[in-house]
Design a protein that fits this description.
Blueprint lengths: L16 H4 L4 H4 L13 H9 L5 H18 L3 H5 L13 H10 L4 E4 L5 H8 L7 E5 L4 H8 L8 E4 L8 H7 L5 E4 L8 H14 L6 E9 L3 E5 L2 E5 L2 H15 L3 E8 L18 E10 L2
Parallel strand pairs: 1-2, 1-4, 2-3, 4-5
Antiparallel strand pairs: 5-9, 6-7, 8-9
Helix pairs in contact: 4-8, 10-11
């Protein structure tokens, strides 16, 4: 079953159908690269050597093994292509602010859709304490993250396996509601319709502590924003203006105000090879965002 021929998924699901269809994903989907060495970039090589203690000559074998472990859990494009190896959060315009707040203010940090926890490891490598970090994802790659980074003895972040759209999860509410200073949310919202994105953003608002809370990340956007079908899933892809409108709607619904900085960027900005994204809809680019709570 080729990815392009997947039956359009109903919007009742929180997870894209292609991600759970792992058995044939290597051969039937257009986003599994046998060799992902090109995404083992210098920044990641340095982290794996100095933070994880993995010699340069063993890193290729290591990341290929880890990629396949992760791909068996969920067939995400970022896993199959190997782009999870490239820097994410450190490319954010807010990165120095994030690092400063984590170091000096002991700010709390939530990574929604944390996958292997790469962003938290980057923050830790750059000097941020990890005991105020929480990773949240709909399915756990947490143990694979420890295999990847070899830091079980000193990485103190906690993990919650939960669906952010589940409003009835009392455990998540007790742990997160009104307690988060910084929220990272990359490659999450673009999985859903406008309505579900609003629901998810409302949950993020409920997690935010106060004015000054930051929500940062990136996702797939499009130069012609709107509803479209991607990988058999009906989604809404944003440009900068519609992303601002989304947060305006969320602000009205929650009685809060948010300042939104968003920009569409070419694949190369993230260090991704455009040839590897040729299966994606025409006009797709990376939407990078920094959203700050004002009130």
């Amino acid at each position: 079953m080729a990815a392009s021929n997947l039956t359009q998924q109903e919007e009742t699901s929180s997870e894209p159908i292609y991600a759970t269809a792992t058995e044939k994903a290597k051969t039937d989907y257009p986003y599994y690269l046998p060799n992902i060495d090109k995404y083992l970039v210098p920044e990641t090589r340095e982290l794996l050597k100095k933070y994880s203690g993995i010699p340069l000559e063993k890193q290729s074998e290591h990341v290929h093994r880890i990629r396949d472990l992760a791909f068996r859990i969920r067939a995400y494009p970022c896993t199959g292509l190997g782009t999870f190896l490239t820097p994410y959060i450190s490319l954010s315009p807010a990165y120095q602010t994030i690092i400063t707040r984590l170091r000096n203010e002991r700010a709390t940090f939530l990574d929604i859709g944390c996958h292997l926890g790469a962003d938290m490891r980057r923050l830790a490598f750059d000097g941020a304490p990890t005991d105020k970090m929480i990773g949240l994802d709909i399915v756990s790659h947490w143990e694979v993250g420890f295999e990847m980074y070899k830091d079980r003895d000193w990485f103190k972040a906690r993990f919650v396996e939960a669906n952010i759209l589940d409003k009835e999860n009392d455990y998540v509410d007790r742990m997160l509601s009104g307690k988060m200073d910084i929220v990272s949310m990359s490659a999450v919202l673009h999985q859903w319709s406008w309505e579900k994105q609003v629901e998810a953003a409302e949950r993020v608002v409920s997690f935010s502590r106060a004015p000054g809370t930051l929500v940062v990340g990136h996702q797939i956007g499009n130069v012609e924003a709107g509803k479209m079908v991607a990988m058999g899933v009906s989604v809404w892809k944003h440009d900068a203006s519609t992303f601002q409108k989304l947060w305006a709607e969320v602000g009205e619904k929650t009685g809060t105000r948010w300042e939104v900085e968003a920009r569409l960027l070419p694949w190369e900005y993230m260090g991704w090879d455009p040839k590897d994204t040729a299966f994606m809809p025409k006009g797709d680019q990376v939407l990078d965002f920094v959203v700050k709570r004002l009130s």
